[in-house]
Known about the structure:
The structure holds two protein chains of two kinds. Chain A is mainly beta. Chain A has no helices and eleven strands.
Amino acid sequence: GAVVSQHPSWVICKSGTSVKIECRSLDFQATTMFWYRQFPKQSLMLMATSNEGSKATYEQGVEKDKFLINHASLTLSTLTVTSAHPEDSSFYICSVNMWTSGRRDEQFFGPGTRLTVL
Amino acid sequence: AQKVTQAQTEISVVEKEDVTLDCVYETRDTTYYLFWYKQPPSGELVFLIRRNSFDEQNEISGRYSWNFQKSTSSFNFTITASQVVDSAVYFCALSEVYSGGYQKVTFGTGTKLQVIP
């Protein structure tokens, strides 16, 4: 079954509104989650590393005030796109490192959230 | 910094043909992982394989096989007897292990495979 879920799977919003995307690890506790963005016909680009209980680490060129990340619990990280504009339209994917005894370290990706800003 | 290069942007093959997707990577770490993912039109990434840097054995899984060569920093993926369902974008990826045990994954630009019936 799925290890990582995302909600919503797709969202359409008007320019200027804020959109919150949730990423949940379903079967385990994740101290670290990652957020990726994928523009049409392009590769996945890491946006930020979400750390439970502390501030996220953003990749170069990603505006932290634009993309707010909150990792309030070991099973939930949220990405809020503030004052979204059409150029923020993209496919947002989260991933989780699972590091437990007997399972080794594995990377699991969520199903993605397609954001369309009108 | 790590980098993954997939030189083939798009490939078209006729069904039942074999096809090889190339992947070349760069990293300064001695410990790292290499992946292949399939992304069908639905968008969800499908994990295909993970290989650590210390295991150079080639792997075969059904019609899929992977050739890992550290000497050339390559991790190529071959689909034998391709099928229409194999049509998708395939990503090669590299991850390095950071302190605390977590991995950061860098993706290649992807190769779009179209299998023509």
